[in-house]
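User: What would this chain look like folded?
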Amino acid sequence: MEKLTFYALSSPEKLDRIGEYLAQRVARDISRHRNGYVVIAMEAMDQLLVACHAQSLNLFVESFLKMIHGLLESHEPTMQLLATSSFVKFANIEEDTPSYHRRYDFFVSKFSSLCHNNHSDPETRNKLRVAGLKGLQGVVRKTVSDDLQVNIWDEIHMEKIIPSLLFNMQENYETPDSPQDETTPWTLAENCLRELMSRATFGHIRSVIRPVLKHLDNHELWVKESAIHMFKVIMYSIQAQYSYAVIQLLMSHLDEKSRVDDSGQRKPSARPRADAKVRRGIVTVLSNIVAIAAGESIGPSVLEIFNSLLNHLRNSIDVKNTTPADHENETLLQEAVINTLGVFANNLPDYQKIEIMMFIMGKVPLSGEESRNTDVLLQHILLKSLLEVGTKYRTVQMAQAFPSAFLQPLLDMSLATDPAVRLVVQQIFHTLLDRHENLPKLQKTSVDGPLPQLTVDKCSRQDMMFIKKNGPEIMVHIYENVQLTNNTKDNFEALYVTLGLLCIELGSDSEALIELMRLIFAIQDLPNTTSAMTASHRASVHALVASFLYVVGHLTAIPSFCTHIEQIIKNRRERARHLLPWEDNKQALNSLPEVTDDLLFDKTVVAEALQSSGHDTSRLLTPYMPRNLGEVNVNRSISDLNSINVEVDSISSSPGLFRKHPQEEITVASLKKMMAEPLDVQQEEEKQRRLQVVEQFRTAAFEDLVAKTEQQTVDLQNKLNEILGKLPPAIDLCSRPSSPHPSAHNDDCLRQICPVPPPYPVQFPELFVF
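Assistant: Here's the prediction, encoded as C-alpha cells.
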C-alpha cells in the first residue's frame, strides 16, 4: 500500500488508470463473492483518496463511485455497510477542483431505501438504517455547498430524503423507552434533519416543508405528538428570518384540508370525522411552533393568518351544525383554533393586538331579535377568540385599549340576545380594564368581612378624558344590560365586576365616581319602576347594587359611608337574605316581599358622606335619565350642560365659520363706491375673499385653528351661565323641598323641561357648500 501510494503521488497522471483497474477488480470479485478482496480494494481506494489531491482526481473519483455503486447493489448487508462507510469518508474530503458531470441521483435513491430497511434481524436492520442515514448526510454535505453539483434541493430529491428522515424519527415515538444515544436511527435522523434545515435558504423552504406535510398526511401523524416534535426540530434549526415561511406553508396546508365549495359547504368527498382530527392536529402544531418564532418573524400577513383561522372557525361551526356525529371533534377543533389565536397574538406588539381585536370584532355577526342559532354560536366562538387575544394585551391607557371603532361595536354586542354572549363581552371588558391584577380579587368578593387588598392608582389625565367622553355611553349600556330579562347569575356577577373595575381604575376621578354612583342608584330604582321584572330578577338587581356599594365603601374609606352600607347589609342579612349577593336562592323566588326603605341604600346619606370628603355631589342628586339606545349616539351625558359646546353668535371669532355676508363698515361713502364700481370688480373681490378662505384652511396649522376657537368657548360658557341665571324661580314642576342642594334642584328642573339642548345651525363658507 505504501508503494502504491508513493507511485500515485509521484505519477498523478496514472490515478485514473489505477482507479479503473481497481474498479474492474472489485466488480469481478463481487460477482464471484470474494468479499475479502473487495474489502482490500476499498481500503486501497480510501487511502488513495485521502492521500492524493491531483487535478486528475475527478476521473479517479468516478471509478470510486462505480465501486460504491456496485457494492450498494449487492444484497449482502456487509457489502452495503462497507460501501456506505467508504462514501462517508469520501464526503468528508474537500476537493480542490470542481466536478461538472458527477451525479448522485442513484446514491440518494439507494441510501433512502436503506433508511426504510426492514431486515428480520433488529440489529442488522438498525445498522442498515444508520448506514442509509449517514449516506444521505454525506450526499447533502457533498452537494449543498457546491453550486456545480446536482441541486440537492430539487423536489425530486427532497421527496426521498425528507420522508426517510421522518420515518426513522417517528420510530422513536412509536417505540416506548427507546434509547437516545447517537447510534440509534431516530437520533441520527433528527441530527440529519437539523443539519439540512440549518443549510436551507428562503428559496429552499417550500421544497423541504412540502414533503414533510405529505409524509404526515400519508402516515396520519397529525393526530400524534410526533408531528409537534418534528416541526419543533424544524423551527429550532431553521434560520430565524425564515420562520414565518414555515407558518405560511402550514396555514396553506390547513386551508387545503378545509376546502369548501362556492356555496360555503364542505365537499362531499371530505370525511368530516377524520378531517376534523387532522385539522385539529395541524392547528395544534401551529400553536406550538409560533411561540418558537420571534415576534416579528410571523411576517407581514398577520391579518391574513387571523382571517384564515377565523374562517376555519366559521367552517367548523357549519360542519358542527350539519354533521351532529362529528360534534365532539369539531368542538375540540374550535378550542384549538381559539388557543392558537391567543398564541399568535402573544407574539405581536400591543398595537397589532388592538388591530386584531378590532378585526375579529368586525367578523362578529350583528345581534338581533331573530338571530339564528348559527349566528349566536358564531358570536360566542368569535368573542371567545377575541377574549383569548385580549388576555395577551397589557392595557396602559384606556383610550388605546378602547378606540371608538372597537368600543362601540363591543358595547352593542353587550346587549346581545343570548346571555352567554353577553357574559363573554363582559369578560372582555374585565380583561382590558384590569391593569393592576384586581380581577381575581373582585371575583371572590363578598359582603362578609374585609375585602382583599386592592391595588388602586391615581387616574391619569388621559383616562379622565376617556371616561368623560365614553363614560356615559358605557353606563347607558350597563343600565340597559341590567334590565334584560334572561340574565343569569353569571351575568349579574360579571356586571358587578365590570362596575368594580371601572371604579378601581377610574374612580379616583371625582366626576367619574359621582357618575357611577348616579348609575347604581338608578339601577336600584329599576325594580320599583319596571313591572316586567321577575322576583328573582329584582333580587339580583338589589344584590348587584349592594356588592358594588360595598366595594366603593372600602375604596373611599369614608366612615359614615361605610357605616350606612354595613347597616343596610345587616338589615338584609336579618330580614331579606335574598337581597344579598351570592345567595343561590334567587332563582327559586316566586314573589318578592316588599322592600322597605330600611333595606335600600339612601342616596341622600351617601351624598352627604361623599360631600364630607370633598366630593362635589350636586350631580348625584340629579336623577339619572339615560337616552334611548335607538337615538343618535351622544358621547356626553345629557345632564352635563357645562360640557356642551354650542355655536351661537360668536361665529366671527372662529376661523372656520364665516357669515354669508362678512361684517363690513356701512357708510354713505362705501355705498357710493359700491354703486360706482362695475359688476366685474365686485365679483373679482368676492373671488379673492373666497381664495383667502381656502388658503387659510390649507396653510394654517391645526393647533392655530384650535387656539382661535378657545375664546369662543369661554364666551359661550359665560353666555349660557347668563341665560341660566335669568331663569325665573317660579318653575316648580319637580319641587323637592327637602333637597339640600337648590342649585342642583334648578338644574334638574331645567333638564326635565328640555332634556336635549336644541341644535344650532352651523354656517359654512359658500365655497364648502355643495
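Residues 314 and 378 are 7 Å apart (CA to CA). If you want, I can go into more detail on any region.
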